[in-house]
Amino acid sequence: MAPPRSRNFGFSRRAQLGLFASYVVAVGGIVVALVMLILANLYPASYNSVIGFITDCTSPWSRLGHGVVTLLDNTRDNVAGYIKAGSENIRLKKELEHRQSDLVQLQLLKADNGKLKRLLNLVDHTPEKIAVGHIIGSPLATSNRRTAIIDIGSSSGVTSGMPVLAAEGLVGRVLATGHFSARILLLIDPSNTLPVKIARSGVAALAAGRGDGPLDVRPLIAGQSPFQKGDLLVTSGTGGIYPPDIPVAFVTALNNDGAVALPVVNPASVDYIMVEKIFEPDAPPEPSLADKMPSQKLSRKKAAKNNPTARAVTQPLAGQAADNPVNSNSASPVSNKSR
Questions:
Q1: Extents of the domains making up the chain
Q2: Which end of the chain has the least Cβ crowding within 10 Å, N or C?
Q3: Count of beta carbons in the 10 Å neighbourhood of residue 331
Q4: Which residues touch 246 (CB under 8 Å, ≥6 apart)?
């Protein structure tokens, strides 16, 4: 039987359903973005809670992705090493003919020993530690934030603001926490500013992230630049949060405003990280009574000098005492008799 003439050959229900689904996804994404924007500006606490929940939900996938990337990197390195071994076999045989086995064993032991020493120094020499973990990936990052995700959260005692360290030095601070994971703000983030000092001279300065790797360092005192290439910058402990004397960066270049420094820690190559308690500097001691007395006498002299009434009363009394020496002398026999 011939098909009806009114049939529309361009009609496709599947194409219409696909177009409708794309509209629904687009509108839903816009709504979610508007809700997150409103929470970020009006309700920061709720926004951090939502981000923490999202971090908890995505941390298993981040861990899985990190494991897959590590496996691929190791496979690539093994394959590359296997291929390269064929071309270098002759040279290695001549060089390590008598000591190859001992040299390989010594190198392995040296590498393991260095890693264990760094881990031991990180854990044992930091009495204010909270927990030790790993960097497992990056969160839902925007273009202007430099953050990372660690695999320890509030269940391990981690809270917002705590400093994050590696064996080499400072990594950043905790920005938001979930139950089993947390988001940290790296040193290179543009909003991250911390007080530092030059380890060589102790001169204080401020280091701020640039977002692209290095740090901008500015001295606190105007004048001649106190920086030199190769200077090590460490935390000063001023203002709290970061404990003092933690390595931060090395000065790599000088400019008119100060210097440019490269962080000592590369988060992409960190094996272990540690979260510490927020550092609280000691309060200055209260002045003693002996220190207060000179200031009190000085304040009294200043008050008498600035008060004309006090001077007018004091001068007549002094004059009366000088004009009546008899009264003062006559009072002494009476006092002697009474004694």
A1: 45-184, 188-264
A2: N
A3: 10
A4: 163, 165, 169, 170, 234, 235
